[in-house]
Amino acid sequence: MTRKDDFKSHLRSRFHKGVDKTVEKYVASIPFDWRLYKQDIDGSIAHAQMLAKQGLISKKDAELIVSGLVAIRDEIEKGKLEFKPELEDIHMSIESRLFEKIGDVAGKLHTARSRNDQIALDMRLFTKEAISETVSGLRDFQRALLDIAEANKAAIMPGYTHLQQAQPILFAHHLLAYFEMLQRDVVRFQDCLKRADVLPLGSGALAGVAYSVDRNFVAKKLGFSDISANSLDAVSDRDFVLEYEAAAAITMMHLSRLAEEMVLWSSAEFGFVELDEAYATSSSIMPQKKNPDVVELARGKTGRVYGNLMGLLTVMKGLPLAYNRDVQEDKEGLFDTVDTLLSTLEVFTGLIKTLKVNTARMQQAMSGSYILATDLADYLVRKGLPFRQAHDIVGKLVRYAISKNKGFQELSLDEYRGFSPLFADDVYGITVKTSVEARNAAGGTAPKQVAAALLRARKLVGKRNGKQAN
User: Fold this and answer.
1) Distance between CA atoms of 234 and 452, rounded to whole angstroms?
2) Cα radius of gyration rounded to whole Å, the chain
3) Cα-flanking dihedrals φ and ψ of residue 169, to 5°?
4) Lower CB count within 10 Å: N or C terminus of the chain?
5) Which domains does the chain have, with CATH numbers?
6) Per residue in 149-193, pLDDT tens?
7) Can you tell me the distance from the alpha carbon of 391 to that of 425, in angstroms, rounded to the nearest whole number?
8) Handedness of CA 104, 105, 106, 108 (dihedral sign)
9) Do residues 238 and 330 touch, judged by C-beta distance below 8 A?
10) What would the DSSP string read from start to end of 52-111?
């Protein structure tokens, strides 16, 4: 069997008719699953070696199959192999080409294997590689955040709740909040890897295979830590894809939150940061504009990643065991999610590395506000007043200051004492600096706590070319 038509027709020996051209186009997955060529070939090589080891095919046939597969991989990577829609998917495309190169011996490769466990294998190999790349991208972004945090570790900015100024915080403390989000993302992907790292090959179409195969040999060859325990589950399971997409959706949500803050902080109203020109765009009509399109796109792409997750959840929710063709819909969403997340992490890493921080503007933004109100309440508490009473007094003091168009530092001591006799000259010692220094509880924004958090974070991510901690 050497011609594509012969290869395809033998798969339809049960039928009298060929596939309708519209159906052929409709069911074809080769336009997107060609990306699995490396995984498919790696899996086939390991499978052929196992078949020879078990005496199911000769060593000579296995060597011929392996050399043919290696040559096909080289053809694909050099762009010399044209994928034909009539061959439907990457598995048939590679197998058909193998027939062309080595003849009927190629037919022995499919011994003890189904396309069902073959694609499950390819998807697991792809997902494992995607997890590794994703964790690497997350680590690079974490390092970029730490670099800018350490370079501005003395900078104080207004902290917000409800997008209203709340309390002073260190800028580094704010960035470390995103570091913690990303650290949870890293752990989620690493946890996802545990369930992706299971070999499904050897499950056949659904019931296992009727040959004396060595699944542990294949698992070791392909770097899997375990083999699947149930053949029905192995061919129909896409939980590992859903887990990757769920973890990716959470990561994109985190990036989208930072994107929103970059949009706000780079505006004229805030002016806390300035995006590098390489990470901004201009307006087609307004020459003065410097638009944060990169981070805006990240906000938008987050919705795509959510959609991919919901799409696959919807596909899987009504499927009886075992394999159903609906599951073909797992690939495009996964590929898109991986591409979107990796590119977003790469762009954000560069954006953060080149970000300019305007600490003077941050200080100015707090100068006319009442951001130290909580510190005044704490001041009264230390003088012996119950916090609820202190809160009430300071609330009235704020209302008075607003009515007089004065800041706290502009109020006279007599004005302070009009609200409580506990106020003394030392009230003027309350500043944004003393405010952050006072919050020295573990996890707080005090410089000592932030310095410790930065040190811990550095240990977690390790050096760029060194060993990374899990």
Assistant:
1) 45
2) 31
3) -140, 160
4) C
5) 4-111 (1.10.275.10), 116-158+170-211+224-364 (1.20.200.10), 365-461 (1.10.40.30)
6) 999 999 999 999 999 999 999 999 999 999 999 999 999 999 999
7) 20
8) positive
9) yes
10) HHTTSS-HHHHHHHHHHHHHHHHHHHTT--PPPGGG-SHHHHHHHHHHHHHGGGGGGGGT
In the chain, the amino acid numbered 190 is Q
Position 144: which residue type?
A: A
Structure tokens at 213: 């195969």
- Express each pLDDT in 86-112 by its tens digit: 898 999 999 999 999 999 999 999 999
H or E segment and range at residue 169: strand 164-170
Q: Are 252 and 344 in contact (CB under 8 A)?
A: yes
Catalytic (active-site) positions: 162, 283
Tokens of 415: 């004005």
Phi, psi of 164 (to 5 degrees): -115, 140
* pLDDT tens digits, 401-448: 999 999 999 999 999 999 999 999 999 999 999 999 999 999 999 999
Do 221 and 43 meet the contact criterion of CB atoms below 8 Å apart?
A: no
- Which residues are within 8 A (CB) of 403 and not within 5 positions of it... i.e. 6 or more apart? none
